[in-house]
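dumping the sequnces here before i forget
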Amino acid sequence: AQSVSQHNHHVILSEAASLELGCNYSYGGTVNLFWYVQYPGQHLQLLLKYFSGDPLVKGIKGFEAEFIKSKFSFNLRKPSVQWSDTAEYFCAVLSGGSYIPTFGRGTSLIVHP
Amino acid sequence: SQTIHQWPATLVQPVGSPLSLECTVEGTSNPNLYWYRQAAGRGLQLLFYSVGIGQISSEVPQNLSASRPQDRQFILSSKKLLLSDSGFYLCALEGEGANVLTFGAGSRLTVL
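..and the predicted 3d for all of it:
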């Protein structure tokens, strides 16, 4: 069965710092990859996704993620975080042929102004 | 556009009481629907999913059940709640982009 690991459970940064949240998955076949974000008091929503093509994908609010197949990774990055990026971030993986995504445990990001 | 309505938004129930959480969707037909439970530090746990009316698959054995009496309605139930059922329950549908989930606002259940 697919498993998803998010290595950082809690991250605290100051504004303008760079961000990288790790995500690794276990299944080695065809995958669709996602990052979802839950801002305080808001719905969980899609931040970005990778299905195929360019392994560097860009999402909303300046976020990007890179799919590295050899490392089974899909790390989320942002060069300069803002206070409004404070949220919980979830990595999710959809294995080929499945319609049930597997989610990581989530990373709580706090950005101090 | 696709929207999900969940209610109640918050619920406090005694141990042993029944539960019914409702999820209805708009703007789509024959969606795949999901119930997740979100617990702090434990991510999102898939509880049930449904690919059509009356079709329910359970991912985790427990005292919860789900039903889909109509195409756009997905209900999470329990006959007798346990303390461990406390949590934040999210309904989701497979969404506007294939394989992308759209989530509802959630229902926070506290069992006392």
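The longest strand of chain A covers residues 87-95.
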